[in-house]
Write a structure and sequence with these properties.
This is Ankyrin repeat domain-containing protein. Keywords: ANK repeat, Repeat, Signal. Pfam families: Ank_2. The protein starts with a helix and ends in a 5-residue tail after the last helix. The chain has two domains: 87 residues, Ankyrin repeat-containing domain (Serine Threonine Protein Phosphatase 5, Tetratricopeptide repeat), CATH 1.25.40; 97 residues, Serine Threonine Protein Phosphatase 5, Tetratricopeptide repeat. The protein contains 13 helices and no strands. With 208 residues, it is mainly alpha-helical.
Length: 208
């Protein structure tokens, strides 16, 4: 009897192994909090990645898994790990317009600045005004340049987000940055025929 009980206890407390890998990924993607909580309690590595380098935290942000996300964050993951595309959990959270996730990540110490494409570019492209505000208040570089030279302002103009453009200009975004394709924020506004955005940019001394 004692031997059977010891074996059962050992089985219950063993760290999650390879057989649980798919269960965890599916649990995170489908926001199954119970499954994820159980696997974490069994010792599953919170920094496990999928075949594209996505950590569980990045997957939760990418899939807007709002119930699973705080469980993963409480397990103290590496916040700034990047997938093979250079994306972090903060980038995906703001791209999915998950303000609560963005706030939680910033409070936990996630980086708002990085080389190349960064969280502010993703927020500007998605039109996530609340996330943008939080990151700017946290010290994000309003004129951060992606690998091809685009700034958050250029991305906001490319995708037609008037309120985002106004907020970035309020934080002194440079309206005259030219990316490697020869595009400025104003040129994007003109191409899109966004008259409101054209007016905002011209008022900020933007040049073609």
């Amino acid at each position: 009897m004692k031997g059977w009980l010891a074996a059962l206890l050992l089985l219950v407390t063993l760290p999650a192994g390879a057989e649980s890998y798919d269960d965890m990924l599916q649990g995170v993607k489908n926001d199954f909090a119970g499954d994820v909580s159980e696997l974490l309690a069994r010792g599953f590595d919170v920094d496990t990645t999928d075949n594209q380098g996505n950590t569980l935290l990045i997957l939760a942000a990418s899939n807007s898994s709002t119930r699973v996300f705080p469980l993963l964050l409480a397990a103290r993951p590496k916040l700034n790990r990047k997938n093979q595309f250079g994306e972090t959990a903060l980038m995906m959270a703001t791209y999915r317009k998950q303000t609560g996730m963005v706030k939680a990540l910033l409070e936990a110490g996630a980086a708002v600045n990085q080389e190349g494409w960064g969280p502010l570019h993703y927020a500007a492209s998605a039109g996530h005004l609340e996330g943008l505000q939080l990151m700017l208040e946290a010290g994000a570089d309003v004129n951060a340049k992606a690998a091809e030279g685009s700034t958050p302002l250029i991305m906001a103009a490319r995708d037609g987000h008037t309120e985002v453009i106004a907020l970035l200009l309020k934080y002194k975004a440079d309206p005259n940055v030219v990316n490697e394709s020869g595009m400025t924020a104003l040129r994007w506004a003109i191409r899109r025929e966004d008259t409101d955005n054209m007016e905002l940019l011209v008022e900020a001394d933007a040049q073609q």
